[in-house]
Amino acid sequence: MKKMRCCSVTAVALLLFISNVLADGSSESHHVTVRQATGGGRSNRVTDTFSTPSQQELERTGSPRSNANKRVYVENKYRPVFYKCESAALEEGKPPGTVVSEVKAYDNDTDSAGDIFFTILRAGSEKEFEVDPVTGSIRSSKSFDRDEPAREKIAYVTVKATDRGTPPLEAICTFNVTIADINDNAPMFDKSAYDESVPRDLELNKLVMRIAATDVDAGENAHISYGWDVGSGPDADYFDLDKSTGAIHLKKKITQNEGYKFALMAVARDNGTEPMNSRVRVMINVASSKIKPPYFTDIPESVRLPENYTSYKKPIATLAAHSNIAAPDLYFELVKGQTEQTNSDETFRINERGNSVDIHAAKALDYEKVTQYILTVRVKNEAGVAAETVLTVSVEDVNDEIPTFMAVDGGSVLENSVANTFVLKVQATDKDATYPNNWVRYTLRDFTDKFEIDGNTGDIRTKVKLDREERKSYPLTVVAYDGKESALTLDGLPNQSAKRFQIEVADVNDNAPFFPQSEYFAEIAENADIGAKVSELTALDNDTESQLAYDIVSGNAGLVFSIEAQTGLLKVQQPLDYETTKSYDLIVEVDDGKQKATTKVNVKIINVNDNKPQFMNNNPEHKYGIVENTVPIGPIVRVNATDPDYDPLTAEGPMKITYTLSGSHADSFQINQLGELSIVRPLDRDLPAGRQDWSVFVVAQDELDGVRLENTLEVVVFLDDVNDNAPFLDMTRVVWRENQPQGRIVVLNATDYDEAKNGPPFTMRMADTAEDVVKTSFRVDGSPTSSWSLMATKTFDREERKEYAVPIIISDSGQPTSLTATSTLTVVIGDENDNPMSDGSSAILVYNYRNSLPDTEIGRVYVQDADDWDLPDKTFGWSSAASPPPYFTVTAFGGFITMRARTPPGNYPLKFHVRDNVRQEEADATVIVTVQEITEEAVRRSGSIRLSGVGQEEFIKDSPSKKDLLRQKVAEYVGAKEENVDIFTVMSSSPSRNHSVDVRYSAHGSPYYDPVKLNGLTATHQDELERLLDAEVLMFGIDECLYEKNTICSEGSCTNRLQITEQPYRVATNTSTFVGVDARIVTECVCLADEYLSSSSCSATSCLNGGTCTGDAAQPCRCIDGFQGPRCEGLDVSFGGTGWAWYDPLPTCASGYLSLTVIAQTGNGLILYAGPTAVPPDTTVSDFLAVELREGSPVLYLDLGSGTKRLELPDRSRNLVDGKAHDLEISWNQRSVQMRLGQCSDGQPYCSASSSLVGSNEYLNVNGPLQVGGITADLQKLRLALNWGSIPTDIGFSGCIQNLTFNGLTYNLYDPGFFKNATPSCAGVVLPVQTGGFGWELIIALLVSLLVLMILILVFVAYRRRSRKDKPKDFHDDIRENIINYSDEGGGEGDMTGYDLSVLRMTPDGKPLIGRSDDYGKLLKDEDLRPKRAAPGQVPDISQFLDDNKGRVDRDPDGLAYDDLRHYAYEGDGNSMGSLSSLASGTDDGDLDFECLSDFGPRFKKLADMYGDHSSESEDGEDGQQGGQSGSESWC
After folding, report:
1. Crossing angle of the two packed helices 1022-1029 and 962-974, in degrees rounded to 10
2. Statement to judge: residues 553 and 442 lie in one domain
3. Which part of the chain is the Laminin G domain (predicted)?
4. Residues 139 and 215 in one domain
């Protein structure tokens, strides 16, 4: 047997790989010894014996357990050891990612326990280096800069090697990276330019000046040499520049005159591999020979200072100099260079003392930053000649840095390890630059009995065996100290720092895991999702660091379950099926890597209804032989279905299968629970509504534990035809021109919806019911075997009659009997241009919506002409007798008139000339165009009516037209002037409603009336309108949601939207044309209340009553005081028993929730009513809702259109007339209704009542206004007309209603559409006194209090009357001849001081009016009764202002003739008013505001000047504010 090579060893990672198996498929044992050399010269020998598997064994492993990634535990005996961890160098400026070094480590453990990965430990937040976790390659993470100002000269890297054993062990190595210098900085001169003077007679080789440069680089890169630039020219021949020192000496006698300037360029060049240089300009001025430069007489060679030097007052050196000229004074300067080494940051300063200067240290020194300073001292005499010298200051290192630990926080050691086992290597650095200041050693502060540390290397080792059960970790404190006395503490001790390291005692796996139970039980439904939890198993292990792994080892047939190896979570992995397997017995194993344990898990599958019923029939099931329009006796087919989930062994009772029907034809069939399908209505085979095959779907539904599933079977019934349809003509109109001779008009064709055997051939003849003129003018010719034709028997004249209706009787050939029917064929007599033309006139009315119409065709020119098909023969043009108006154009052919955009409102008489080109005739035409602008508010707040029996052309023609008559009546009904009523939309209602029209109108006084008022008031005059218009009223307030389950919205919720288009809608007759607004109702299947709750967008109407929109859905509006609704609604309204208020109708929603708060004064009264205000045109819609108080208890009436439900509380003693506010909640759906008092706690039966509803209707559809507080309708009349079972009271409500909401929509109770005697507040509601609890003491106290109050009132009144009578009369403001005071004109004139105004508000029956009413809309608070000023910038119409106010009084149903004798005869005393003298009353206008007079135009300018606070020419007052005094009453 030939053996093949089996194993290979990698040289670096020390991993042993099996590279081949034996060729014959057998296994063989191998003994392998691996010897590895470490970096320290010692070798490690690892010996192990293993077997290579055979090929068959490998193939057998292809059937794994449930977990494919089963963990193999390998005990971790050895920690990693670094054998390569060396210092490195990195050039500054290298980009991130540059390879710096490489670390290597080995681990003597086998398999995964010997795998090592590397990580970087960081002391700070900055990421400087990164390590490859596998290869140990170290790369830079940033670019370093060794030079100023960063000075990054050295960096430390700490790498951790961690193995993958259990538990994981680690090793740490730290090495430094020296940042190597590169020549990346050019030399820098200590000055940007030099300028010195030299005497003309200076001796040769004498020092002229000195230049100096420094380089922040290091080494040769910082070594500088000087020289002259080639650009210096011949001037460089006079001076010698020392290459090393920068000293400039004179080398050639100066021959130039005084004032000459030598211009030189010096170069400083470093000694780098690639040298860098810089240049500086040097200017040397030739001075007088008498002028000599100063010179230093005392120059110290150098100075040495320790880096902790702080004697800043003491000079470090003193330099003296001589002026060398007559003037002895000198000026010293310490030159500030461009690097720190040349004093760029002013580390040193000077102190001048005459001809000497002291040099002082000015800042702290740092040897680690700058080791030497080169100071240039300059001295200058009064002649401006200077000299320089250089002083070198060397810095000496002191021990002022404290050792700092590297980024290591702790280590670990296996328990039971022998003494002297390596634990951790700690390392600290000292930033001091010299030895022994930076020599770091270590010592332990605690646990010295268990650990020891090498003082020089920082290696920590154990001194004894450690037991994890005794202690898991040790906080070991290591002290690092340097090698010399501290220059910081000055206590003779070295600098030191301490750090605590956590030493973990790693656990060894020496305990077996175990399950707390030997057997577990679980249940799971068969329809559980993949991944659903079945159970969670938890095993225990006394080894705290053990990592447990779970696996299913048997019983998992089909691998339907899986278990998470780490958590023990048992889950569903494959679909379960109770019908296949009802339970599983699983064996679950737990493995800690070394030892194992097992337990049993019994999983029971729960049967659920997860299979649909199965039909035994064919799908679809066909049934033939059913005769149309018959109802067979008995079932036509039987269906049979079974439930696959039914288990007779566990089920209780027989299989539950129920049958129902679905589909559009289901109401024509029925099925019983035996599956027998029957026809219950005749089925029609023929068109237009019938079909040959009728389908119905049988739904079989099973049930198990409350879960229902269903399946559907289609049954198709094929019908046999019978002759049940008469034939009819397939044409309805035909044209026959006038003046034609007798002949065939048309071939008659007929259609029969029956099959061919019951259809043709047909027999036709003219009906005996035809008019005599039809019989003499037409005849029907033909035969059944050929064809039938309609013949003309005379010549026709269209002007005599335009069309004829010819009735034709048609019979089919059906069996057993034929069918006969009459079809009417309309023969239209076509026009010929055979009549003369004459002058004509017509009118066009245009409503220009928002004045936004573009160029619009509005109608055509009309002339008198009996012919009406001759328009192509005519040409049209403007009359030469008048100039063409600028706003209109006319087409030559057709005579169509176009109105241009932005045409102003007004009347426009248009003159035209018409020519008939066939008859060669001419005529003139006049068209009166009336243009009216209609605003968006008028359209939005419009009423509407739908009429039947009248077309749109018929509605506008004639004078007066039906449109004019309707306008007059609307003005009469709503109390508006006729000119303030606009009918702006007249249009056919829809193609499906033949000969019907929708009309939309608005009316206004000052604002436009609410649609609620318009529709409600016109609805009460239905009979009169139908007589007047000769039409049937179909609807007041067009409501496409009125009919339940209409064709658009079948699920209940429905909302009407008024859709307004920019394009107009035109209706034309010969003499009149109406161009109106295209405004129509479209429906949307949503509940209007839902939009109120969900909308958070801001619009012009989103916040009411002056509120400000916030855009926040939680609080959409910011409201002014007095309005607390979500959108600033007014939330309360009160009534006194004689009033009511109309609001928008309740929205049509699938279900309803109505809530309100009631404060009642009396026990009987109608709280609210939603329903028709009068008997509606269509009495089939009879929905209404009402809530009343009857003997103090609430009663609800609800009718969804199929029967009235009356609901009251079980305990009628619950009286709401108790002076408290009561919340009333009403909710209903398609089947039931509930009424509940909100303050009642749960469980009190008298608090709520509920009941099922009457009939089959499901939704509340009301078109009438929501009437609150009372009702205007005749309920008895409505009851008889609409067949209501019961009705509420018509007594008005006394009290207050608050917080009225429907489905969350809050009603604005301050803004009814129409009202009477309603007040927008509960403040005036007098609450009833509750009896009980009063004693005699309280009654006596009340009587005494009232008596005292009456006495005080009498005394006060007597005092006022006496003071007024005793007051001396004033004459200074009375300029009349003989009137002293108006009150002195007679004994009866006491009325001037004693008017009782309350009498003036009394009705003829002597009852006072309760509240106020106003046709103009909102309920008015007292502060709202003042007249309102016009909006800023709006000029009011004074005529409209006076007419509106007069009209309002004229139309006020409560307005009384207050100037009758009955009122003025009642003139009492006690009124506090003064004299009514016109002069005296006019002396003070301070409380009036006449500023609005200036708004009425130039005619009121003089009045405004006389009565206003300032002239009409001035717009601003003294304070810069417009208008008069704030708070004054406005006259306007």
Report:
1. 160
2. no
3. 1130-1322
4. no
Q: Which two tokens stand for residue 498?
A: 């301490």
Nearest of 404, 371, 396, 372 to residue 308 by alpha carbon: 396
Q: State the first-to-last Cα distance of the chain, in angstroms, to the nearest integer.
A: 126
Integer Cα distance of 654 and 647 in angstroms = 10
Asked if the model's pLDDT at residue 322 lies above 70, the reply is yes
What is the per-residue pLDDT across 703-754, written as a single tens digit (0 to 9) for each?
888 888 999 999 999 999 999 899 999 999 999 999 999 999 999 999 999 9
Q: Are residues 391 and 465 in the same domain?
A: no
Cβ atoms of residues 738 and 829 within 8 Å: yes
Residues 695 and 737 occupy one common structural domain:
no
Compute the half-sphere exposure of residue 1032: CA atoms within 13 Å on the CB side of its CA.
10
What span, in angstroms and rounded, lies between the C-alpha atoms of 882 and 895?
17
Same domain, 44 and 100: no
Q: 1524 pLDDT band (50/70/90 cuts)?
A: very low
Residues 733 and 855 in one domain: no
Specify which residues 225 forms β-bridges with.
Answer: 269
**Nearest-angstrom CA–CA distance, 187 and 1115:** 71
Is the pLDDT score of 763 beyond 60?
A: yes
Distance CA 1181, CA 1259 (A): 11
In a shared domain, residues 233 and 300: no
Question: 370, 218 in Cβ contact below 8 A?
Answer: no
Is 443 a member of any domain?
Answer: yes
The average confidence (pLDDT) of the chain is 82
Task: Copy the structure tokens of residue 729.
Answer: 């003509």
CATH code at 229? Answer: 2.60.40.60
Residues 6+ apart with CB under 8 A from 1230: 1052, 1150, 1151, 1253, 1258, 1259
Cα pseudo-dihedral 104, 107, 113, 115, rounded to 10: 20
Exposed / middle / buried, residue 989 (Cβ in 10 Å: 0-12, 13-18, 19+): buried
Lowest mean pLDDT among 80-94, 324-338, 874-888: 324-338
State the residue range of the domain holding 48: 7-60
| β-strand pairing of 170-180 with 88-91 | parallel
DSSP assignment letter at 1239: T
693-704: strand order across its sheet: 621-627, 707-720, 693-704, 657-662
Domain boundary among 229, 260, 290: 290
- Mean pLDDT across 1370-1394: 41
- Percent of the chain residues past pLDDT 70, beyond the cut: 81
Nearest to 1418 by CA among 1032, 1123, 1053, 1076: 1123
Beta-carbon neighbour count of residue 1301 at 10 Å? Answer: 19
Kindly state the tokens that stand for 1156: 């309100």
1331 domain-assigned: no
Rg value, the chain, Cα: 57
pLDDT tens sequence across 1233-1274: 999 987 665 556 568 889 998 888 889 999 999 999 999 999
- 3-class SS at 335? coil
Contacts of 1150 (CB under 8 A, 6+ apart): 1051, 1052, 1053, 1087, 1229, 1230, 1259
Cβ partners under 8 Å of residue 1212, min gap 6: 1191, 1193
Residues 1176 and 1277 in one domain: yes
Position of tokens 């403040």?
1323
**Contact (CB, 8 A) for 295 and 322:** yes
Contact 489, 308 (CB under 8 A): no
User: Distance between CA 649 and CA 1179 in Å, rounded?
Assistant: 60
Count how many domains the chain has: 11
In a domain, 155, yes or no: yes
What is the pTM assigned to this prediction? 0.49
Find out whether the peptide bond into 133 is cis, omega within 30 degrees of 0. Answer: no
Say whether the peptide bond before residue 1147 is cis (omega within 30 degrees of 0).
no
Kindly report the length of the chain.
1532
Give tens-digit pLDDT for 881-916: 888 889 999 999 999 999 999 999 999 999 999 999
